[in-house]
Write a structure and sequence with these properties.
By secondary structure, the protein is an alpha+beta fold. Helices cover 34% and strands 24% of the residues. The chain contains 16 helices and 21 strands.
Length: 424
């Protein structure tokens, strides 16, 4: 099963580089160009220069920046191999929570082996970008986020014990998320932790592009006779799947630029599969959906402007099994499967390729942004969803299947720049 190991992390020297809160950033794929510039205005040593390089030759620029920072002591590799215990504490949707896991090196395995399992489809363009960056820098700048099953929660207990003291690094970011990092170098403790994972499977929560890229990079190194073994591993953050602090946010769907969009036609067509009721106040949509979520029902809120919205509740869950008999029960039961199959594809004609290219469909995790996008005309309508359950992610991955893109949004994202991994 999963093979993990400690590694000598590459970290900022704050006495040379500046304050740690000025050096880190969110994942590259959720940063706008304006945000990127703001990070660099605060501190030109921000990790964004490595993780999201710009210019005519961005990858060569990242390589040169990395070499410069190593020479100047802005970055320094830890003297000892370590496991990095990482905690995030945050508030969202009136919930205050925190979760803790460990950042380690994980041996790369093909998905077909069933040791590391994906749950979402990926886009080739993003993988090409990450591959070019890895080839140029031979480094992981951010962690892949994965989950594991541990019914006794013994690994979390171990991590809690090893992080009882003051963290080596602590900061609060612009979203008021507090990040803490403890560095564990005790060889015996590391060995025991590695043994704890010997019977575990890992389920990728966030970072599918980076994992597939790491596989391609490993193969590239082997084919070209480069590397010293480090290319066989990738940096990951591992968290107990049943950790009470895990929060998955919904990803709402925005429909745009349809030539034949007809609200009344849609609602009439939906009546074949859904109970359709009009609600007078769109601000109640999330709470209504939460009630149905707790009852185990499949439901969406459909909004096309004004103050009201329509609640769509699936009448018969067996309909998906009839339409998608080749899919597992886990995939058939997903809210996104129901919405995509019965509404987006069947009624609107937005097929999987259209969704992948985001021709008529875009996404947001923010309810207010979804509503505003319709009100300002950027979208013709919005479908408000409930979040995907973590157990559903596990079951789909275990069945060897993948969810549609943007089915999950784990919050908060892992911050980039606390620790990096030089592959060789």
């Amino acid at each position: 099963m999963a093979e993990i190991r400690a590694f000598r992390g590459l970290r900022f020297r704050t006495d040379t580089a500046g304050k740690i809160e000025e050096l880190v950033c969110p994942p590259y794929d959720i940063i706008s160009e304006e945000q990127r510039k703001n990070y660099l205005e605060k501190n030109p040593n921000n990790i964004i220069r490595l993780e999201l390089p710009k210019g005519e030759q961005p990858y060569e620029t990242a390589k040169a920046t990395l070499e410069e920072w190593l020479d100047k002591g802005i970055l320094k590799q830890d003297d000892k191999e370590a496991v990095y215990i990482y905690e995030e504490e945050f508030s969202v949707n009136q919930i205050h929570a925190k979760f803790k896991g460990c950042i380690v090196g994980v041996k790369l395995e093909e998905f077909s082996k069933g040791i590391v399992l994906p749950h979402e489809e990926t886009l080739s363009k993003a993988k090409e970008d990450r591959f070019n960056l890895m080839k140029a820098t031979n480094c992981n700048f951010s962690q892949i986020y994965s989950l594991y099953m541990d019914s006794e929660h013994s690994i979390t207990d171990r991590l809690d014990r090893l992080s009882e003291g003051t963290p080596d690094i602590e900061l609060t970011d612009h979203e008021d998320v507090t990040h803490r990092l403890w560095i564990v170098t005790d060889a015996k403790e590391i060995q025991q932790l590695c043994q704890d994972f010997a019977d575990k499977k890992l389920y990728i929560a966030d970072g599918h592009h980076r994992y597939e890229t790491a596989l391609n990079y490993r193969n590239y190194c082997h084919e070209n006779g480069i590397g010293n073994g480090g290319e066989n591993y990738v940096m990951m953050m591992l968290v107990d799947m049943e950790h009470p602090g895990l929060v998955v946010l919904p990803t709402h769907r925005l429909v745009r630029d349809l030539e034949s969009f007809d609200k009344e036609k849609l609602l009439t067509a939906c009546e074949e599969y859904f109970s359709v009721t009009e609600e007078t106040d769109v601000q109640t949509a999330e709470s209504k959906l939460k009630e149905l979520y707790d009852e185990g029902k499949k439901a969406f809120a459909f909004y096309s402007g004004g103050e009201s919205y329509h609640l769509l509740v699936l009448k018969d869950e067996n309909v998906i099994a009839k339409l998608l008999p080749e899919k597992s029960k886990a995939s058939q039961g997903l809210d996104v499967t129901v919405l995509h199959t019965l509404v987006l594809e069947k009624i609107f004609g937005i097929d999987a390729e259209n969704m992948a290219k985001q021709i008529n469909l875009t996404y947001t995790k923010l309810f207010e942004e979804a509503i505003e996008s319709v009100r300002n005309g950027k979208a013709q309508c919005a479908f408000i969803l409930n979040p995907t359950r973590v157990t559903e992610i596990r079951d789909v991955a275990a069945a060897g299947e993948k969810m549609p893109q943007k089915s999950t949004y784990f919050y908060p994202k892992l911050i980039t720049g606390l620790v990096m991994n030089r592959l060789f």
